[in-house]
Specification:
The chain has 13 helices and nine strands. By secondary structure, the protein is of the alpha/beta class. The protein has two domains: 294 residues, 3-Layer(aba) Sandwich (Rossmann fold), CATH 3.40.50.1110; 105 residues, no CATH class. It has a five-stranded parallel sheet with strand order 5-4-6-7-8, with helices on both faces. The protein has a four-stranded mixed sheet with strand order 3-1-2-9.
Length: 505
């Protein structure tokens, strides 16, 4: 009997120890304590303390503000059950080569873009229905808007015009500075995150304003949406941003038109070749599955992966790539690019034309413009954790096959140099997020999209870069601005309609 009691005591002690250890590891790694499966790391615990100190702080900014969170969205709603079912159905039944994603079912597609959805290359894969709207200008850009005044199953909560974030008051209240971020997925951010980095910027701007006793409110809005390019962003500005008469519009994009083939003489016609690895033992496969439910097991799995790493995908190093010849455009100065050069790499001619359009349109409402640098998590010779950073590895090597890290890095740096020169040439602000953010793969989910920690750090960097700009505008009495007499106060709302589809194969 004594033996059984002792054994039971030992067993209980082991179970309690494991549970406590699981909780501790979840906290350290930034996972919700009770969530199963784990999902992505969340919470302040996922942010390395030294990351905060690697971001330069503007004068008067206190480090403690970084740890302060925005208030929960007042317009967050319960997700209808039928929407949850639809989302899970699309998730479980991918079609069209994964082109049509679950969140696409809750976008409102521009009929000038969609045409007959059943003839559209990816909308034809919609699950028997689509939300559609008629653009007032009958133009195909932007291709879609988010449903207004909803919370969709992906976690995104929208305001009355379909932007991520809280409701908008129009005209903007007195002594309010209105800032709008425009861009793609790296602006709207992952839908499940409680806040995007523009939302953090807005929160900290108001913390700063209160600390200085300015009596000024900062309203920072997020007009971003995934999968769009510079021409779509220009249309968003023209049709959705201008009616809000912002004080400042910040452009952040640099991934969706990034085409390395623009400097390659002949792209090798070689399929994606993953490094050869020995067949994983059954125990390792079991660990991978179990790690979805246990942060503690995830640590064990990571240790196994690192211990058994060989050259190739398991090592976290760049995959072997076929050889190709880089042909830099003749006469183009890489360090000091000519903005008017006829054949700039990675679509920078088109991007500049769209930036010109945005600047001109903003000028009609007296709004300022700023551009940011764009962060690619890539560096020649970079080696990352094969488990934690597996999506970085996949994006750089599979999605950008067969381009070498050094060429991706070269083009990313060139793109940022050109954007900086464009800003200087046209007298607009340039916010160097890349130069003020730590180069740390733990801040990224893949090569361009940030983790929860990265989202917060990017917002902190942007906030600190904005403070001097805002201080100058306030000192010059340029901001805040009164709403012009007689100017329309109508919000750029729209009318979604649910359309049933029966697209035959």
């Amino acid at each position: 009997m004594r033996f059984l009691k002792d054994a039971l005591l030992v067993l209980i002690s082991l179970v309690v120890s494991v549970v406590v250890a699981e909780g501790v590891v979840r906290y350290i790694d930034g996972y919700p304590i009770l969530l199963t499966p784990l999902g992505e790391p969340m919470g302040l615990a996922s942010v390395k303390k030294d990351s905060v100190d690697k971001v330069p702080r503007a004068a008067g900014v206190e480090r403690a503000w970084f740890f302060d969170d925005p208030a929960p969205l007042p317009n967050k709603r319960a997700v209808p059950e039928d929407w949850e079912r639809l989302y899970r159905f699309v998730e479980a039944n991918p079609v069209g080569g994964m082109w049509f994603r679950p969140s696409d079912a809750f976008k409102v597609w521009n009929t000038s873009f969609s045409g007959d959805p059943c003839r559209h290359w990816f909308l034809r894969h919609a699950p028997g229905q689509l939300f559609l709207y008629d653009a007032p200008d009958r133009q195909p850009r932007p291709p879609y808007r988010f449903l207004p005044d909803v919370t969709i199953p992906s976690g995104l909560t929208t305001n009355q015009i379909g932007w991520r974030g809280p409701p908008i008051e129009n005209p903007r209240p007195e002594r309010t500075v209105r800032i709008v971020f425009v861009g793609s997925s790296t602006v709207v951010e992952a839908h499940h995150l409680p806040n995007s980095w523009p939302e953090y910027v807005g929160h900290w701007m108001n913390v700063w304003s209160r600390a200085k006793g300015l009596g000024i409110r900062f309203e920072v809005l997020n007009a971003g949406r995934e999968s769009i390019i510079s021409s779509d962003i220009a249309a968003v500005v023209r049709t959705e941003v201008l009616p809000l008469r912002p004080d400042l519009v910040i452009y952040h994009e640099g991934g969706n038109q990034f085409r390395p083939a623009s400097i390659v003489e002949k792209v090798p016609d070689v399929p994606v070749t993953r490094p050869s690895n020995a067949q994983e033992p059954a125990a390792v496969k079991w660990l991978k599955q179990a790690a979805r439910y246990s942060a503690l097991i995830g640590r064990v799995q990571a240790a196994f992966a690192m211990a058994g790493a060989t050259a190739g995908s398991n090592s976290g190093a760049e995959w072997p790539k076929p050889d190709y010849k880089v042909v830099w455009p003749q006469g183009l100065d890489e360090m000091n690019p000519d903005l008017d050069f006829a054949s700039l790499p990675v679509n920078l001619n088109l991007i500049q034309r769209d930036l010109d359009t945005i600047r001109a349109d903003l000028g009609t409402v007296g709004a300022d413009m700023a551009i940011t640098s764009f962060f690619w998590m890539v560096k020649d010779g970079m080696v990352v954790d094969p488990v934690r950073h597996r999506f970085i590895i996949e994006q750089l090597n599979a999605a950008n096959w067969p381009y070498r890290y050094r060429d991706l890095e070269r083009l990313a740096n060139f793109q940022n140099r050109l954007l900086a020169k464009y800003a200087k040439t046209h007298g607009i602000a340039f916010l160097d997020l890349v130069g003020n953010t730590p180069f740390d793969p733990d801040l990224f989910i893949d090569a361009v999209h940030t983790s929860y920690a990265g989202t917060r750090i990017r917002g902190w960097a942007a906030f600190n870069l904005l403070v001097p700009l805002v201080e100058k505008k306030l000192a010059d009495k340029a901001w805040p601005r009164p709403w012009p007499a007689g100017a329309s106060t109508a919000l750029p709302t729209f009318s979604p309609r649910l359309t049933k589809l029966d697209c035959k194969p």
